[in-house]
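thoughts on both lines:
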Amino acid sequence: MFSSDKDNALLAMIRNGGEMSGGQKLQLIVQLSVPSILAQLTTIMMFYIDASMVGSLGARASASIGIVESTTWLFGGLTSAAALGFSVQVAHFIGANDFGKARDVFRQGLMATALFTLLLTAVCVAIAGPLPRWLGGGADICGDATAYFTIYCLALPVYQIGILSSSMLKCSGNMRVPSMVSILMCLLDVVFNYFLIYETRPVTLLGVSMTMPGAGMGVPGAALGTALAYAVTGVMLVWFATVKSPELSLKGEKWTFAPMWNYLRNAAKVSLPMGAQYMMMSGAQIVSTIIVAPLGNIAIAANTLAITAESLCYMPGYGIGDAATTLVGQSIGAGRAQLARSFAYRTVFMGMGVMALMGAVMYVFAPEMIGVMTPDEQVRLLGAQSLRIEAFAEPMFAAAIVTYSVCLGAGDTLLPACMNLASMWLVRLTLAAYLAPTYGLLGVWTAMAVELTFRGTIFLVRLFSGKWMKKGFNNMGS
């Protein structure tokens, strides 16, 4: 139920030196990508549902989430960076058929990320009060924004164990369990939100009238619903990874709390550049929010909802990127440079094709994608115009996403992180600050489209240079 014999057989060919045909490579990419794409899409659907439910309360409610959304991405990104520093090592060890060391890394990752996230949560809670004011939010939205952010902060520890376990399973080649659990998380989020956001009210279901209970929490209810969904699914993921996974199970293993410094150092080499990147990229998103904030609540709400809607289009790129990280990581662990390069090229071009198609869909259905989340006509019109500008940049955005994942699989994170940061800060923010006073939110989204096209171009140069692969084999040697 939780694994595929075909997937396992093809992954074993990587580890055992078997020659793979083009069809087998494509089959493996698709088999690993599809569950991951579904997981990514359901995660975004969860945010889409949150936005739709909160959006029904009005533009002010949407703006109260939008003003802190980029900061939640920052803290969520830091937890992902911490997890990937360990899971990339697991991919390398599994590729080398050394499952004992893979489990050692997993054990170290559980302890290190638990300590890290407790510290992160303390910082997060400490800034929750003044944060909306720092970001330029008006007095009418600061209360709900602070409540939303505080609840999100308190959910970080359980989110961390879930993201670590999910990342470990993906790098071991098991994409199905994280995908299934992600779908469950989306469903739970809908149920929890339904009862927490709205007040007790009469409803009619299949012609039967009844009173539906509700907590009437509004915006804080959306955060609490998501936190509860994280809690349930996080426990499930860590249980499966530590008990049921053939490659990772710690059941019966001797547990040691002693630090294994070589694994911690290798994790730091991957995680620190990624963490710095997340901080600077989220900092850039925060600056972008500050650029948008003076344009008013309509612009803030339209910007937030357009970002959520666009996520449905670029998440397939991240799903294919997960497959790229696993396949490149295991190929490098097995010492197979040519196979790593082949998987890299195939995943990048597949990602560009899929996201080009998604961009076309986004252009055509932009009004409907925004309209689902808000009844406000001004917000809907401005959000749809923004999405249609962005649609043209989707293929090159895919090039950046998947190539970065290829580099991650090789453990090459420092230069790619610098590339992301330079593109965001020097191109997007500079251009957005110049265009926003004249063209408003549409100027901000034009700057975004130009920057993503530039970023995709420089990542393709990095891909074809092959230097990411040399970095990967150097890391294996260390």
